[in-house]
Amino acid sequence: MPTRFVARPPATDSDPLEASGPTLRWGVVATGGIARRVTGELTQLADARLQAVSSRDAERASSFASEYGAARSYGDEGGVPGYLRLSEDPDVQVVYVATPHAHHHLVTSALLEAGKHVLVEKAFAINAPEAEHLVALARERGVFLMEAVWTRFLPVYQRALDAIESGELGLVRWVQADMGFLAPYDPRSRLWAPEHGGGALLDLSVYPFSWTVGALGLPRSVSARGVLNELGVDEINALTFEHEGGSLSQLTSTLASQAPRALTIAGTEASLRTSGSLTRPDGFWIERGEETREERFDHGPVPYAFMLREVTRCVQQGLTESPTMPLSHTLAMMHLFDDARAQMGVRYPNDERWGALSGRGPGPRTHVAARDAAEQG
Ligand SMILES: NC(=O)c1ccc[n+]([C@@H]2O[C@H](COP(=O)([O-])OP(=O)(O)OC[C@H]3O[C@@H](n4cnc5c(N)ncnc54)[C@H](OP(=O)(O)O)[C@@H]3O)[C@@H](O)[C@H]2O)c1
Q1: pTM value?
Q2: pLDDT tens-digit profile of 324-350?
Q3: Tell me, what's the pLDDT at 1?
């Protein structure tokens, strides 16, 4: 029987909005694009209450709070950042962090220090040392922490993994996936600016990576090529991962072209292809010789709710991480992405602080060296 590399969450086949326990009081940090989408779904959960929101700007925090029904709002005040003020709110139990990646570590570490459970947007952090620090902090405080890889909780992802687990594909040997879109060039935007962690790797590669982990398990090494723009961030990247047992995955991400966002998982008996974007496919086909089997999915109007249900269930049950999106997967990804960035020559201001990626420029870099550099830094 093939291994299942990603645990199935219990709520895959039920309504994610239905309560699974006592009501949790949530906080939200940031008022940008994804904060709005996820909060709009969060407030529909039967056992969630939006307690507080923070923003750099008090007025933005207040209008977001009125729009989504939060009891309190916090902006930066007297030199104290809004997220820090929110972290001191004793009525907030769990916080969703939706700032650009380069600010995830700063905000999340403050929340964990204050004893809050945290759901933090992808990419979890800028580099592996930041990620290691957050995980250590969460474990020390005994609080829940998860990277918001919402796609892992969608029924289509879980059903595709069921098919692999059942042996329908035979032994999976190869995965190919691409992700991307043409992003308007703005050197100040979070998609491009190095100080926000810009580039395709941290913003997009998280999604195909999650599929490859589901199909083949955590990779043991990565070879990376990237096309960098004048800011020094990757417009396009191509990652080849090697997995135990002689399997490969090839992932391409781009902010510089329209991409089909297609996924193929190839086994010795059959292959699986998704239809629609791999972030939220509306189905998949399994082709075995002349035969094709199809499964279709309608995730409805609340696709993020499957992830929010998992966070809620875990916190209600006293778990400190999700078996479906464990911290070990996030840490492995951050180490592999550090290796990929070292090979592509992409560095961020946050790397200097942590002594990460000290071997600048092309050339492979081991996980152990990255960790050693962080400890010495
Ligand atoms: N799960 C998904 O489907 C998904 C989709 C898109 C993005 N994301 C992730 O979510 C995060 C935010 O993305 P987004 O698209 O929502 O970005 P966005 O629209 O630019 O919003 C980011 C928000 O972060 C806050 N922020 C705090 N410090 C900031 C700073 N120094 N510079 C700029 N903004 C700052 C701002 O809110 P205030 O002004 O209120 O402080 C801003 O509105 C990223 O990590 C991204 O990868 C996830």
Answers
A1: 0.94
A2: 999 999 999 999 999 999 999 999 999
A3: 67
DSSP for 32-77 reads SHHHHHHHHHHTTSTTEEEEEEE-SSHHHHHHHHHHHT-SEEE--B
Q: Which amino acid is at 18?
A: E
d(CA 351, CA 368): 16
Of ligand 1's listed atoms, the one at least distance from the Cα of 31 is 40
Strand partners, 27: 52, 95
Of the pLDDT bands very low, low, confident and very high (cuts 50, 70, 90), residue 373 is very low
Residues whose beta carbon lies within 6 Å of some atom of ligand 1: 30-35, 55-57, 60, 98-101, 103, 121-122, 148, 150, 190, 203
Counting ligand 1 atoms within 8 A of each CB, the residue from 28, 34, 207 with the most, and so the one to mutate, is 34
Tokens of 222: 């990565």
The total of other beta-carbon atoms located within 10 Å of residue 49's CB is 16
Residue 142 in tokens:
């005994």
Helices (H) and strands (E) in the chain, counts: 12, 14
Question: Roughly how many angstroms between the first and final C-alpha of the chain, as a whole number?
Answer: 45
> How confident is the prediction for the chain on average, in pLDDT?
94
Distances (CA, A) of 187 to 122, 179, 200, 313: 21, 21, 14, 40
